[in-house]
């Protein structure tokens, strides 16, 4: 009995230990990505395949297996939000040790490094990081010193060029004549050098410098590079398809010693080429690292079978891709719905009706999104949602809140109502008219002291000697233009009037000359504003309408439909997604095709792929046979992307007779006339009724002096002829003549000047 085996004898010593929590529930490719801890690793993660979980689980596995200590790990994200979320997830898995992981965005990590080694590039550790406004101000100073015309070569365009060079890892010493082109009369390269020198003098850096300086340090100070290479044995990067050249080089240098580089990304979702992203970085990963392991995450946990099949078929048309096919264990669900409409108004009406139907069926508005190719396309939907009282929110800036639209609206407001001081203040020196801060302050002070409108005060001072000659000429031209446009206010259609104002004021020309990446988009928005004006008979009616639009900014606790661009939608998901405007020229964008050709087309197709894969259950694609683009009606044909969708996975809904052909006719526009003409009509909510019943009154015509310049309501002066007076600028003098509150004075030293009464004192009071 003594030799009998114990009761606890284990006849199966091969028992498997339970999986840690971070490995539980992973599919086979996910687990492979998480447990491949050494050597280069490329994780091709399709939309909705759980890449965030893979990243956090892999980091936890690195720490738990003691393959790497937390301080040996570098984890790079593209946004601060993503960094915060990852840090929290890692903390939940491995506890406080997560704090020792070097985790953040490219810029935050590079800034942390640069603070330690700033002296190696001529900076101090407490250097300032400039924002875009500071950059523009500095570039303007350099251009002024070099005698360059900032109207011909906007500082913003130079800032964009400098940023582009830095994204490519190019310092001033690497810029050749060919790279500089004819920007700034061919002097962009020399200005770049001066700009970098000036930054060092100011002990400052811009965002592009953070990586550029670290590249310089790594390539010229091997000891610094080796310090980081020895410490950071394992590197992980999210959204690798969106890296630019400088980020790519920075990562390669850091990973050179150990080659434990894990890159997670999706070449099919590379949609930021316009801001420097190089899809080639992910496409050549296997060439850069011949021993790399590539894992494809293809099981989608977000969308239904029909949506994934449609998206996969579409993206398969791209030639430059690594290739993967998404699938789901979920049901096929509803097919992708494709609808054709008479025109854009009809599209907006039907889309809003569909949203209302979903809402009435119990769907949350928060789970519905309308995704457009360009920002200007939100305008029609904003106005339609407003008209029917459908709660919505715009991700980014609402159409009428964009800076260029506010500027244009200010011009329209002051022409409609010359006493609108807020509008006048916004555009009196926009575009730049040579009015300095001192001149503007003088105008504001005079308007306040005389209790008259700002425009009136400007008209008075334009005909006096209170301001410098250049400022007076600028003011006279400004006031004269306003007066001329005011005369045309009731003689021209509002759209034609607005077009004339924006052209003659130089505002359109200002953006046409601007070479910044966002300038074309701003011009498109201005054209869309003109399009909006086509629907109104009077300028006053349009401004009424806009007042209501601008008032619709309060969040609705019951939920809101989301309106945004396809670029802004990346990384988000919704139950139902509407994709309007799938027409040639709009999507794919004609400007993109013209500028970048085949590469641009592939990026546009990737953008369509992103749009489709934002939806969990329902996708509605639509196009219009006729669309008013920038004020002009044009016939449209469906986007080539529509024909690339597989027939087995789409449902065509062409009940209006609009299919793959052209226009048969055009529906009546949804919005026409002023708000007052629509009182009591169906489809217009209480807001419309309230606004339409509000009487604005008829603004009186502006007063003019004998020379035709606009003037205010200045009080008559009580100064007498020959009275001795004192002026802060011109000194002592005698009154020669008076005209309301304008005086002609013979100054003892300055001669005869025209001044305004509020700027002088009696000699006895001095």
Fold and architecture overview:
By secondary structure, the protein is an alpha/beta fold. The chain has five domains: 28-115 and 212-299, P-loop containing nucleotide triphosphate hydrolases (Rossmann fold), CATH 3.40.50.300; 128-202, Arc Repressor Mutant, subunit A; 315-398 and 553-665, P-loop containing nucleotide triphosphate hydrolases (Rossmann fold, 3-Layer(aba) Sandwich), CATH 3.40.50; 400-544, PCRA, domain 4, CATH 1.10.486.10; 715-765, Roll (SH3 type barrels). The protein is built from 28 helices and 23 strands. Strands 9, 10, 11, 12, 13, 14, 15 and 16 form an eight-stranded mixed β-sheet that branches. It has a six-stranded parallel β-sheet with strand order 3-2-6-7-1-8, with helices on both faces. A five-stranded antiparallel β-sheet has the order 22-21-20-19-23, with no helix packed on it. β6, α11 and β7 form a beta-alpha-beta unit. α20 (454-462) packs across α21 (469-488). The protein is globular. The protein starts with 27 loop residues before the first helix and ends with a strand.
Look up the CATH topology of the largest domain. Answer: Rossmann fold
Write down the domain tally: 5
Helices and strands: which structural class? Answer: alpha/beta
Could you state the CATH homologous superfamily of the largest domain? P-loop containing nucleotide triphosphate hydrolases
CATH class term of the largest domain: Alpha Beta
Low-pLDDT residue intervals, each spanning 5 or more residues: 1-11, 661-714
- Measured as a percent range, the helix fraction is 40-55%
- What CATH architecture label of the largest domain applies? 3-Layer(aba) Sandwich
- The rounded distance between the terminal residues' Cα atoms is 125 Å
Q: How many β-strand stretches? A: 23
Radius of gyration: 32 Å
What oligomeric state do these chains adopt?
single chain
Shape: globular
